[in-house]
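Problem: given the chain below (268 residues), write out its structure.
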Amino acid sequence: MTKKISVKGCQLAYREDGPANGPVIILSNSLMSNLSMWDSNIGSLTDQYRVIRYDTRGHGQSEVTPGPYSIGMLAEDLVGLMDALDIPKAHLVGLSMGGMICQYVGANFPDRVLSLSLCDTASEMPPRSLWEERFALCAKEGIAGLVEGTIKRWFVADFIKQSPLEIAKVKEMILTTPEEGYINCASAVRDMAQTTMLLKITAPTLILVGRDDPACTVNQAIVLQRMITHASMKIIDDAAHLSNIEKPEEFNQSIRQFIQNASQNPLL
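Solution.
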Protein backbone atom coordinates (compact mmCIF):
# COMPACT_ATOMS: atom_id res chain seq x y z
CA MET A 1 0.00 0.00 0.00
CA THR A 2 1.30 3.42 -0.97
CA LYS A 3 1.64 5.94 1.86
CA LYS A 4 2.59 9.61 1.96
CA ILE A 5 4.96 11.45 4.27
CA SER A 6 6.11 15.06 4.49
CA VAL A 7 9.78 15.49 3.55
CA LYS A 8 11.52 18.84 3.00
CA GLY A 9 8.20 20.61 2.45
CA CYS A 10 6.99 18.01 -0.06
CA GLN A 11 4.54 15.13 0.25
CA LEU A 12 6.43 12.05 -0.94
CA ALA A 13 4.63 8.84 -1.85
CA TYR A 14 6.35 5.62 -0.82
CA ARG A 15 5.72 1.95 -0.28
CA GLU A 16 7.31 -0.60 2.06
CA ASP A 17 7.59 -4.35 1.46
CA GLY A 18 9.40 -7.13 3.28
CA PRO A 19 10.21 -7.69 6.97
CA ALA A 20 10.02 -4.54 9.11
CA ASN A 21 13.22 -5.45 10.95
CA GLY A 22 15.26 -6.41 7.87
CA PRO A 23 18.22 -4.48 6.45
CA VAL A 24 16.86 -1.60 4.36
CA ILE A 25 17.05 -1.25 0.58
CA ILE A 26 15.74 1.98 -0.96
CA LEU A 27 14.83 2.12 -4.67
CA SER A 28 14.95 5.45 -6.54
CA ASN A 29 13.10 5.71 -9.86
CA SER A 30 14.00 7.06 -13.28
CA LEU A 31 12.73 10.20 -14.97
CA MET A 32 9.12 9.87 -16.22
CA SER A 33 8.42 6.81 -14.06
CA ASN A 34 7.16 6.00 -10.58
CA LEU A 35 7.65 3.37 -7.89
CA SER A 36 5.77 0.78 -9.96
CA MET A 37 8.82 0.55 -12.26
CA TRP A 38 10.29 -1.81 -9.63
CA ASP A 39 7.40 -4.30 -9.66
CA SER A 40 9.53 -6.98 -11.35
CA ASN A 41 12.33 -6.59 -8.82
CA ILE A 42 10.61 -6.47 -5.44
CA GLY A 43 9.96 -10.19 -5.08
CA SER A 44 13.65 -11.08 -5.27
CA LEU A 45 14.47 -8.94 -2.22
CA THR A 46 11.58 -8.96 0.22
CA ASP A 47 12.31 -12.35 1.79
CA GLN A 48 15.22 -10.80 3.68
CA TYR A 49 15.17 -7.04 3.20
CA ARG A 50 12.87 -4.18 4.14
CA VAL A 51 12.43 -2.61 0.69
CA ILE A 52 11.28 0.99 0.38
CA ARG A 53 10.46 2.48 -3.00
CA TYR A 54 9.27 6.02 -3.45
CA ASP A 55 8.15 8.47 -6.13
CA THR A 56 10.70 11.20 -6.72
CA ARG A 57 9.40 14.73 -6.13
CA GLY A 58 7.27 15.73 -9.13
CA HIS A 59 6.60 12.14 -10.17
CA GLY A 60 3.93 9.51 -9.54
CA GLN A 61 1.85 10.33 -6.47
CA SER A 62 4.47 12.61 -4.91
CA GLU A 63 3.80 16.33 -4.80
CA VAL A 64 4.85 18.64 -7.62
CA THR A 65 6.49 21.63 -5.97
CA PRO A 66 7.64 24.74 -7.85
CA GLY A 67 11.06 24.60 -9.54
CA PRO A 68 13.90 24.86 -9.94
CA TYR A 69 15.02 21.42 -8.80
CA SER A 70 18.58 20.11 -8.57
CA ILE A 71 19.99 16.61 -8.09
CA GLY A 72 21.23 17.82 -4.70
CA MET A 73 17.70 18.81 -3.74
CA LEU A 74 16.32 15.43 -4.81
CA ALA A 75 19.12 13.68 -2.91
CA GLU A 76 18.20 15.62 0.23
CA ASP A 77 14.64 14.34 -0.29
CA LEU A 78 15.96 10.77 -0.16
CA VAL A 79 17.96 11.45 3.02
CA GLY A 80 14.94 13.27 4.46
CA LEU A 81 12.78 10.23 3.74
CA MET A 82 15.30 8.09 5.61
CA ASP A 83 15.14 10.53 8.53
CA ALA A 84 11.34 10.54 8.54
CA LEU A 85 11.25 6.72 8.57
CA ASP A 86 14.02 6.50 11.19
CA ILE A 87 16.45 4.69 8.88
CA PRO A 88 20.08 5.44 9.79
CA LYS A 89 21.65 3.56 6.85
CA ALA A 90 20.46 1.78 3.74
CA HIS A 91 21.50 0.01 0.58
CA LEU A 92 20.61 2.49 -2.18
CA VAL A 93 19.55 1.33 -5.64
CA GLY A 94 18.87 3.96 -8.29
CA LEU A 95 18.23 3.77 -12.02
CA SER A 96 18.94 6.66 -14.41
CA MET A 97 17.84 9.80 -12.50
CA GLY A 98 17.57 7.62 -9.41
CA GLY A 99 21.19 6.61 -9.89
CA MET A 100 22.20 10.26 -10.14
CA ILE A 101 20.41 10.95 -6.87
CA CYS A 102 22.17 7.98 -5.23
CA GLN A 103 25.56 9.20 -6.50
CA TYR A 104 24.98 12.49 -4.72
CA VAL A 105 23.92 10.80 -1.49
CA GLY A 106 26.93 8.48 -1.63
CA ALA A 107 29.32 11.39 -2.07
CA ASN A 108 27.77 13.85 0.38
CA PHE A 109 26.06 11.64 2.99
CA PRO A 110 28.48 8.68 3.18
CA ASP A 111 27.44 7.74 6.71
CA ARG A 112 23.91 6.97 5.47
CA VAL A 113 24.99 4.47 2.80
CA LEU A 114 25.65 0.74 3.18
CA SER A 115 26.11 0.21 -0.56
CA LEU A 116 25.26 1.83 -3.89
CA SER A 117 23.80 0.14 -6.96
CA LEU A 118 23.98 2.68 -9.79
CA CYS A 119 21.96 1.34 -12.72
CA ASP A 120 21.82 2.69 -16.27
CA THR A 121 22.97 6.08 -15.08
CA ALA A 122 25.66 8.72 -15.62
CA SER A 123 27.42 11.56 -13.84
CA GLU A 124 26.72 14.11 -16.62
CA MET A 125 24.04 14.24 -19.34
CA PRO A 126 25.00 16.59 -22.20
CA PRO A 127 24.23 18.13 -24.61
CA ARG A 128 21.97 20.90 -23.35
CA SER A 129 20.33 21.14 -26.79
CA LEU A 130 18.94 17.62 -26.42
CA TRP A 131 16.96 18.66 -23.36
CA GLU A 132 15.77 21.90 -24.94
CA GLU A 133 14.37 19.90 -27.86
CA ARG A 134 12.48 17.61 -25.50
CA PHE A 135 11.15 20.53 -23.49
CA ALA A 136 9.94 22.20 -26.69
CA LEU A 137 8.17 19.01 -27.76
CA CYS A 138 6.60 18.70 -24.32
CA ALA A 139 5.39 22.30 -24.49
CA LYS A 140 3.83 21.63 -27.90
CA GLU A 141 2.34 18.16 -27.43
CA GLY A 142 2.46 17.51 -23.68
CA ILE A 143 4.00 14.40 -22.13
CA ALA A 144 2.28 12.33 -24.84
CA GLY A 145 4.69 13.80 -27.39
CA LEU A 146 7.61 12.19 -25.58
CA VAL A 147 6.25 8.66 -25.28
CA GLU A 148 7.37 7.00 -28.51
CA GLY A 149 10.90 8.40 -28.47
CA THR A 150 11.28 7.45 -24.84
CA ILE A 151 10.14 3.86 -25.41
CA LYS A 152 12.69 3.47 -28.23
CA ARG A 153 15.48 4.69 -25.91
CA TRP A 154 14.38 2.62 -22.94
CA PHE A 155 14.03 -0.79 -24.61
CA VAL A 156 15.64 -2.83 -27.35
CA ALA A 157 13.48 -3.41 -30.42
CA ASP A 158 12.86 -7.11 -29.74
CA PHE A 159 11.55 -6.40 -26.25
CA ILE A 160 9.16 -3.78 -27.62
CA LYS A 161 7.79 -6.34 -30.08
CA GLN A 162 7.64 -9.28 -27.69
CA SER A 163 6.38 -7.62 -24.50
CA PRO A 164 3.32 -5.51 -25.36
CA LEU A 165 1.85 -5.68 -21.85
CA GLU A 166 5.04 -4.39 -20.24
CA ILE A 167 5.35 -1.65 -22.85
CA ALA A 168 1.74 -0.59 -22.28
CA LYS A 169 2.38 -0.37 -18.54
CA VAL A 170 5.49 1.77 -19.08
CA LYS A 171 3.66 4.05 -21.51
CA GLU A 172 0.97 4.59 -18.88
CA MET A 173 3.65 5.40 -16.33
CA ILE A 174 5.13 8.02 -18.65
CA LEU A 175 1.73 9.52 -19.53
CA THR A 176 0.76 9.94 -15.89
CA THR A 177 3.95 11.89 -15.07
CA PRO A 178 3.00 15.53 -14.35
CA GLU A 179 4.39 17.82 -17.03
CA GLU A 180 5.77 20.31 -14.51
CA GLY A 181 7.36 17.53 -12.50
CA TYR A 182 9.04 16.17 -15.63
CA ILE A 183 10.39 19.59 -16.65
CA ASN A 184 11.69 20.33 -13.15
CA CYS A 185 13.43 16.97 -12.75
CA ALA A 186 14.74 16.84 -16.32
CA SER A 187 16.23 20.30 -15.82
CA ALA A 188 18.06 18.97 -12.77
CA VAL A 189 19.43 16.11 -14.87
CA ARG A 190 20.40 18.53 -17.65
CA ASP A 191 22.33 20.78 -15.26
CA MET A 192 24.05 17.97 -13.35
CA ALA A 193 27.87 17.80 -13.24
CA GLN A 194 28.90 15.10 -10.77
CA THR A 195 31.96 13.38 -12.25
CA THR A 196 34.48 14.90 -9.86
CA MET A 197 32.09 14.33 -6.97
CA LEU A 198 32.36 10.58 -7.57
CA LEU A 199 35.83 10.64 -6.03
CA LYS A 200 34.18 11.20 -2.64
CA ILE A 201 32.19 7.95 -2.74
CA THR A 202 33.58 5.32 -0.37
CA ALA A 203 30.73 2.80 -0.18
CA PRO A 204 30.92 -0.48 -2.08
CA THR A 205 29.34 0.26 -5.45
CA LEU A 206 27.88 -1.76 -8.30
CA ILE A 207 27.66 -0.12 -11.73
CA LEU A 208 25.02 -1.95 -13.76
CA VAL A 209 24.20 -1.08 -17.38
CA GLY A 210 22.38 -2.49 -20.38
CA ARG A 211 24.82 -3.05 -23.21
CA ASP A 212 22.51 -1.33 -25.70
CA ASP A 213 21.55 1.63 -23.48
CA PRO A 214 21.63 4.76 -25.70
CA ALA A 215 20.62 7.13 -22.89
CA CYS A 216 23.25 6.25 -20.28
CA THR A 217 25.84 4.33 -22.24
CA VAL A 218 28.41 1.70 -21.32
CA ASN A 219 31.10 4.36 -21.78
CA GLN A 220 29.36 6.57 -19.23
CA ALA A 221 29.16 3.59 -16.88
CA ILE A 222 32.91 3.05 -17.29
CA VAL A 223 33.46 6.63 -16.13
CA LEU A 224 31.52 5.84 -12.96
CA GLN A 225 33.51 2.67 -12.36
CA ARG A 226 36.85 4.39 -12.83
CA MET A 227 36.01 7.36 -10.62
CA ILE A 228 34.50 5.43 -7.69
CA THR A 229 37.06 3.70 -5.48
CA HIS A 230 35.24 0.47 -4.60
CA ALA A 231 33.23 -0.06 -7.80
CA SER A 232 32.55 -3.13 -9.92
CA MET A 233 30.61 -3.22 -13.17
CA LYS A 234 28.04 -5.58 -14.64
CA ILE A 235 26.86 -5.31 -18.26
CA ILE A 236 23.53 -6.89 -19.16
CA ASP A 237 23.31 -8.05 -22.76
CA ASP A 238 20.25 -7.45 -24.96
CA ALA A 239 19.05 -4.65 -22.70
CA ALA A 240 18.80 -0.90 -23.07
CA HIS A 241 17.88 1.73 -20.47
CA LEU A 242 15.32 0.00 -18.25
CA SER A 243 17.35 -3.16 -17.83
CA ASN A 244 15.45 -3.98 -14.64
CA ILE A 245 12.30 -4.49 -16.73
CA GLU A 246 13.90 -6.02 -19.83
CA LYS A 247 16.05 -8.57 -17.98
CA PRO A 248 14.57 -8.78 -14.47
CA GLU A 249 16.09 -12.15 -13.54
CA GLU A 250 19.64 -11.10 -14.40
CA PHE A 251 19.14 -7.65 -12.89
CA ASN A 252 17.69 -9.09 -9.67
CA GLN A 253 20.40 -11.71 -9.28
CA SER A 254 23.13 -9.09 -9.78
CA ILE A 255 21.64 -6.67 -7.25
CA ARG A 256 20.91 -9.37 -4.69
CA GLN A 257 24.36 -10.94 -4.89
CA PHE A 258 26.09 -7.57 -4.73
CA ILE A 259 24.14 -6.41 -1.67
CA GLN A 260 24.80 -9.72 0.09
CA ASN A 261 28.53 -9.44 -0.62
CA ALA A 262 28.60 -5.79 0.47
CA SER A 263 26.86 -6.72 3.71
CA GLN A 264 29.42 -9.42 4.47
CA ASN A 265 32.45 -7.33 3.52
CA PRO A 266 31.78 -3.58 3.26
CA LEU A 267 35.07 -2.92 1.44
CA LEU A 268 34.39 -5.28 -1.48
